[in-house]
Amino acid sequence: MTLAGHEEPWREWRSATAGPRLHHGWILAGPRGLGKATFALQAARELVAEPGTAQPVGSHPDIIQLEPLPATSDDEKKREEGKPYQTKRNISVEQVRGMQQRLTTRPTLGSRRVIIIDPADELEKGAANALLKSLEEPPVGSFFMLIAHRPGRLLPTIRSRCRTLLFPKLANEQVNSILAREAPEADQSTRDAALAASAGSPGAALEFVQLDLGAMYRIMREIAEKGDANFERRGKLAETLGARPDRKRQLAVIDLARAVVAEGMAGATRHSIPLLTDVHAELVRLGAQAPTYNYDPGLLVMEIGTLLASVAVPSEPAYG
After folding, report:
1. Integer angstrom CA distances of residue 160 from 21, 38, 119, 122, 255
2. Is 177 inside any structural domain?
3. What are 84-137's pLDDT values in tens digits?
4. Is 118 exposed, middle or buried (0-12, 13-18, 19+ CB in 10 A)?
5. Are residues 38 and 155 in the same domain?
6. Edge-to-edge, what's the strand order for the sheet holding 142-148?
7. At what angle do helices 7-17 and 36-48 cross, to 10 degrees?
8. Domain boundary among 134, 166, 198
9. What is the reported pTM?
10. Which of 134, 257, 262, 302 shows its CA 20 to 30 Å from the CA of 199?
């Protein structure tokens, strides 16, 4: 089954595979949650399959997948038990070197092998440099599929050695339809929050539904519209976030705040646009730093709340 928004990437990919010589490196580019990993795995299985050779239903010996490892030994146990777990922030150079060691042998079932790196824009610096060597001199029959949510973070030398498949964002109507089908139990406020923060990504929208951020969305909109002179709303925001939110929840809250500010821009006056733009830029900065910085959750939510309050009350300083 072709996922929504994948029609053009599939057309381009199959046109390339039907040609006389398939490029060895591909970047699958687009926001998180568009189904790029699903596409990569399906395309890889098609590429390595050969007539007359039975293909395994589960993991394939000629498809190598690199992704961030579990963060701790406890997370490793959770993964083995099929439970949610935290991952390390980056794909390590040791993982890339392990992959390269496998490339010194022949594929197991056929003449082709595919390496999927998800996400490639979260490679350690050393890992990215090591990968570049494989892209410069790829072994015969080896093809690389680099999933990139933010392709601008990839090394220019990596980008120059790959072709790019762009995955488009979906319209709000499409995302809303997917939410109705996949998460019918979600109430309207939760769906509204998910739709606002998803930025056209159905996967992101479904993650927001799972995080149940409807109440936080309401509080954020109140702060942005009415301000928070006595810090009461910011206190509610902190309570809703929780004392020990995981990294995924913290990132989702930043994205949600950014969406609230973006909504305000739709009806902004000429005089308020510069302030909204500055606040939005600050939230973008927070979102870019959060995956690698260890923010204190309490301080983070207060900074977000203060930024939102500054939109409603220009006289209030951007940092409290």
Report:
1. 18, 24, 18, 18, 30
2. no
3. 888 888 999 999 999 999 999 999 999 999 999 999 998 999 999 999 999 999
4. buried
5. yes
6. 63-66, 113-117, 142-148, 25-29, 163-166
7. 20
8. 166
9. 0.81
10. 302
